[in-house]
Structures are given as C-alpha cells and as structure tokens.
Amino acid sequence: MSPLDLVNITPLMELTSGTSEVAIGMVDGPVAVNHPDFASANIREVPGKSRAACSQMASVACKHGTFVASILIARRGSPAPAICPGCTLLVRPIFAEPAGAGEQIPNTTPEELATALIESIGAGARVLNLSATLAQPSPNGQRELEVALDYAARRGVIVVAAAGNQGSIGSTPITRHPWVIPEIACDREGRPIGQSNLGNSIGRHGLSAPGDQITGLGAKNQPVTLGGASAAVPFVTGATALLWSVFPAATATEVKSAVMRAFAARRGTVVPPCWTPGRRMA
Prior knowledge:
- The protein is an alpha/beta fold.
- The chain has eight helices and eleven strands.
- The longest helix has 18 residues.
C-alpha cells in the first residue's frame, strides 16, 4: 500500500492541488529551492537567523528541510508525495546548517521555536508544520512556547507537530497543548513504528500517518528515503491545506474538526489512530 493510499488522501489530491491563498508555515531546515521539482512552487522566506535556501547541500538541516518540503509542495509526478503543490510554502529555518562530521538530527530550543512560530503566523501561515525536536528545555523557554501556541490558537492557525522518535512515553510542551495535532509515524499496515514517542496527550488528540520508508526529494537532485515522525507530519499538514483550499471560508476549528472527525470518540490509549482507506476526511 502506498503512503497516500494509507491516509486516503488521493481523492482529495485529485480534487485540488491547493491554492496559493493557503500558506503553510514550515518551521524546519532550509530548502534546496533550485531543485527542478520545486520550479513551479511558491516558496517564500520568513526572515530569521538562517536563509530559506540551502547554502550547504550536504548538511542534515538542508536534507531535512528539502525532504519535508517535497512531501508538501513538490510538483505532482515527482518521486515525492507532492500533496499540495499549489499552496504557498513559508520557510522559516530554525536548524543550523553547516555540515560536519557526526552531524546529528537537527533540533531547536523552545525559545527559538516560539519565535519562529510567531514570525510564521505574522507572515500569513494558516497551518504550521513542525517536524522539529526540542532540546535544552528550560522553564522560561517552555512558557514562551506555550504562549506562542496559545497565540496560534487565537489566530486560528492549525499546528501539526512531530511527537518525536525516541521510543519514549510522555509528552512535551508541544504535544500536550490542546490546540496541537501531535503526529507519530506508522508503517504501511497502519501500525506505529518502533521508535515512536507515545503518551496520553498524543493518544487523546493526535494522529499517526505514514512514516516508514517515505521517498522524497534530496538536496542534490536525487530522491531520498527517510522515516519517522518528521516524515509523518507533512501528510497531515498537506491534507489540512488541501481541505482549506476546497473550503476557503471554513474556520480553523471546522477544518481541524474535519481532519479529526473520524476519531472524535473519547480515547483511552497512548497510541493515536492512523488514517485508513475506509475513513474519509471530508
């Protein structure tokens, strides 16, 4: 089963490729914007400490940002899922880019993430894609992040965020926020992959989406295959953007309810449900 079939998104993709009025705020790494499969994409930079375009193609930050962006807005027919190429992508890099030996998966602090969220909302984002891991937690930083997520809720900006890949049970300031849709990765059978972070808040108001052997664009014009929660998040983000493209007058609460409608029943598990072909989003 293909990842798109698993989440039953193909009929929605056939209905629309998204509209430029729906802007996705991608808080992640920079993007290889000169990749030919981004040639027709509407990619805009949200100014920050780093540029939206990659300067080090070999860096993990560039690879990560390019991969996530390709799931969202690569051209249809590319190796990537290319869910909503007609939407606008607002790129707000938060990951340091210079390549180096032993470079790890990029992460960020709560303070940096809070700033990026506020700036992306100010730039016009209607849905935020957070495929980021938090590091260096602090009480002040967590409060700043909670304030930023509260602001997103007040502004009607939907937040879809990775739950993480440490194989742990618990929550973070992101995944326990009631407005956030936490994401874990599932395999092609809809089962959580082994390293997925789980928890009460993730089970209550989260989802799982394809995150096992997902093919996307690489920074050096070659497809790459990755997995984990970072890969799962843009499937839900992209579906949300497509729904808003079809129903432009809908409120954030209505769109979020449509995404979550099949799973509205009270949950008592730490494992969030995965979309299946029999569950319709709209």
